[in-house]
Amino acid sequence: MENKTPVTLKFLAEKLKMSVSTVSKALNNYPTINEYTKKRVQEMARDLRFTPNKSAINLKERKSRIIGIILPNLLDQYFTRSIAGVEQFAMQFGYNVIISQSHDEFEKEKQLADMLLKSRVDGLIIAISKETQDFNHLYQFEHMGIPVVYYARNPSFNLNCHKVLGNNFQGAYLATQFLIQRKHQKIAYLGGPKMINFTHDRFNGYINALKDNGVSFNTELVAYTDFNKENTIKAIQNLFSHPENLPTALVAFKEPILFDAIKYLKSINHPNFSQIECIGFGNNAFISYLDTPPVASVEENPESVGENAIKLLLQLINKEIELDHYQKIMVDCKLVVH
Amino acid sequence: MENKTPVTLKFLAEKLKMSVSTVSKALNNYPTINEYTKKRVQEMARDLRFTPNKSAINLKERKSRIIGIILPNLLDQYFTRSIAGVEQFAMQFGYNVIISQSHDEFEKEKQLADMLLKSRVDGLIIAISKETQDFNHLYQFEHMGIPVVYYARNPSFNLNCHKVLGNNFQGAYLATQFLIQRKHQKIAYLGGPKMINFTHDRFNGYINALKDNGVSFNTELVAYTDFNKENTIKAIQNLFSHPENLPTALVAFKEPILFDAIKYLKSINHPNFSQIECIGFGNNAFISYLDTPPVASVEENPESVGENAIKLLLQLINKEIELDHYQKIMVDCKLVVH
DNA sequence: TTGTACGCGTTATCAG
DNA sequence: CTGATAACGCGTACAA
């Protein structure tokens, strides 16, 4: 099946003994083209499987109808779920989506940003890597008039940018309040890496829920970990090391980490294990398979976060919102009781 | 920050009072350009943040250095894991990757294929949707000389194409053999949707392991389900409905389904529950949190499947392998004991 | 060593 | 109703 000559407009035109412009117009259903001519052209195009070259169109139109997404990790369900929200809306408005993962590395993120810039995406949605402190690779986009929406992960506080974020404060507040209503007074908080700045918001939600409900706060009930299992165990050991302040409940910043914690407590046969009630962020589908599941989960609605991000981005692309009129959208969490 | 004039080669040339071609050559480090000129051009390009327009280059070079990936679902860890293998290798050879999900719908898959075709990807890696029977949308690629590698999911038997598949036969064989070695004689097989054709391979692996080890086969020990929990429960009820043929072990085609099965058996307090040993395909990371985990998992090495797919695709792109010299690569599974 | 001219595939303008 | 022509941004033979 030789294919020396790609099927282009010119090729069709030669076959049909017409001009390239007529062929183009016929295919695009211009009203000024004779019906019979249209038929001929369109049939020939179909038979020869003519496929318009998007690069040529992009070049001409000076836009690509492509949205770029950069996210840290496709193995994290939060992000894959968020994509669904983006995709659906983008498609609906005639945009395609390029998904790429930074693996939480700054260098990789920069590389991906450059590639998307060269591809002249019409907009970028990004959840920054945990290493990202410098934003030059992203400023470039705005410098070229390409809108960027930061989502899921909050960049440094004083950065002027468009953001769509989960309401971490409210999520942690809900969780803590729920546990208080279940008569817990010693509620521990297990936080995440401090450089991920939603850690603070969640902590504040926890603190405020305590305060608003008249439960006293105790630093012995707070510990931090990262995504490393051993560090989580250390943190848990810490939390449970004060006999006069033994936690009866636990709020954790992320579910898999919570699972590690539960597993550990169970493994050491913690005396009050069966009374301890836990809540984590995530609402992982696997919870239904656990024998000692968390009492509830903070559902972060990542699809909705993605949807809000793409909606905002499309408004920016269509200039319904000024590029430098920075928006901040918060998506509320929901408490799901198991 | 106005940006009326996009920074193009022409723009740079005017600024520098040189010709466009000189600028182009300088940026591409042509040996025929004076060192001093190069310096000037490159500095100016950097200062003005010149970013080459990929559409223009694609048009000129008649290729995009982009690989398209279509897969059914980003929520399935098998597929997201497989992407890692593809990405790494593609990047290394200067290719970028466009990931898109068909949501296991034929129409969506067709739509995505068309868009990738228009984008003139240099190659396509696809795990077909479960609805895909017709392959015209994929033939188009080969018709235009663009190689396609089918991976993870096996298209209909008599389709001539390049394939990279998990060795499902071997995986099921390993699992069954392992259970036999642990003295099981009544090993049930829980298969998946019949239209997903690896179901047959796995069943054959099961059968052959039985035969090779002198264990008799019994149809009462075989049932099929899909991804619906209720159907799984029905299948399990079926398997355990013959008192004279009660399974003591179970091989399941996919882990989440196996978890449903285990959960059900536990919920009804099946008398010999604690003796039953199970193995499923997947090796899900959450297994470590289960109280009654499968005794082992069939690790399908999706990263390796992805890696083999991209390697093959690159060979096809580089014409190291003829487009119509169809290849079939099998990636072995590994048994992981928990 | 640098510049000129052309073409990649498409669409839009304007003339016929 | 149809066709010639220019332009989008870039790379490269060929000319100077």
Automatic annotation (TrEMBL), chains A, B:
This is Transcriptional regulator, LacI family. The keyword Transcription regulation applies. Residues 7-61 form the HTH lacI-type domain. Keywords: DNA-binding, Transcription, Transcription regulation. It comes from Pedobacter rhizosphaerae. The lineage of its organism: Bacteria, Pseudomonadati, Bacteroidota, Sphingobacteriia, Sphingobacteriales. InterPro entries: HTH_LacI, Lambda_DNA-bd_dom_sf, Peripla_BP/Lac1_sug-bd_dom, Peripla_BP_I. GO terms for molecular function: DNA-binding transcription factor activity; transcription cis-regulatory region binding. Pfam families: LacI (PF00356), Peripla_BP_1 (PF00532). It comes from the Bacteria.
